[in-house]
Amino acid sequence: MSFNNLLKEIDVNLHKQYTLEKFKEGHTGRNFVVQAPKFEFTKPVFKKSINLPKASTNSFVNEYLVNRKIDPDRFYYADKFMEWTNTQKQTFDTIKKDESRIVIPMYDENKNLIGFQGRALGKSFTKYITVMLDEEAPKVYGLETIDKTIAVYITEGPFDSTFICNSIAMCGADVDISNWGISNPVWIYDNEPRNREIVNRIGRTIDNGNSIVIWPTNIIQKDINDMVLSGHDVISVVELNTYSGLEAKIKFNNWKKI
């Protein structure tokens, strides 16, 4: 079918305008042929989403998070975590030992879902299960919320990050942030001077020239959430105990002797 006839079938009024324009330009007659247009369609890309109820909808989970002063509406709840995970990405070969978990979503800076963590609600062999939908993406919580032009605080866990403004959280081992465009990263590790792994991480962070929080001796709680529950003004403590360079090394050496 010629373009002229196709246009006539689709839109009569538009066809009349088209015919008039061709007449004005002198492009009339049977021998005038217009090449049929090529229609190119881009396959739509659908963003993945967490099709789960918010943690606040489950009374037990809601109470657990509220008691820890954590906003339950920031997280989700999966009654059968393994079964649900397999609908997002085939991860578990067997789901016989399935259990309920809090689901912690991970998004990139464009708010695309890149992965999630499942946190156990009770005693479990694996407290956290991390599933990445994008294997190339960083295992980090909170990327979609931060302003990279100011200090970005990096905590060890998603729950802890909810108490610190402009923060993200590691959802795995140490992560490389050198390519993220963060101008001023401040690392916050757990307050565990007898934990060799944490001590080594802090040492490497200082050697790399980054800013870091060294907890003062009057803080005995292990992590930020416990500090909040004990009544500490965590934001003020963090701001007053951020160090870098030689000062960080001195504070670190004193801290790890505790």
Tag the structure with descriptive keywords.
six-stranded mixed sheet; alpha/beta; Dna Topoisomerase Vi A Subunit, Chain: A, domain 2; DNA primase DNAg catalytic core, N-terminal domain; 258 residues; 3 domains; extended; single chain
Summary, kept brief:
The chain is of the alpha/beta class and about 260 residues long.
DSSP summary, beta strand count: 10
Please report which band the strand proportion falls in: under 5%, 5-15%, 15-25%, 25-35%, 35-45% or over 45%: 15-25%
Give the CATH topology of the largest domain: Dna Topoisomerase Vi A Subunit, Chain: A, domain 2
Query: Separation of termini?
Result: 85 Å
Mean pLDDT across all amino acids: 87
CATH class of the largest domain: Alpha Beta
Structural class: alpha/beta
Task: Please bin the fraction of helical residues.
Answer: 25-40%
User: What is the domain total for the residues?
Assistant: 3
Question: Which architecture of the largest domain per CATH?
Answer: 3-Layer(aba) Sandwich
Number of helices: 9
Low-pLDDT regions: none
Walk me through what this model shows:
- The chain has 258 residues and is of the alpha/beta class.
- The strands form two sheets. Strands 5-7-6-8-9-10 form a six-stranded mixed β-sheet. Strands 1-2-3-4 form a four-stranded antiparallel β-sheet.
- Strand 3 and strand 4 form a beta hairpin.
- Helix 6 packs antiparallel against helix 9.
- The longest helix is centred in the N-terminal third of the chain and has 14 residues.
- It is extended.
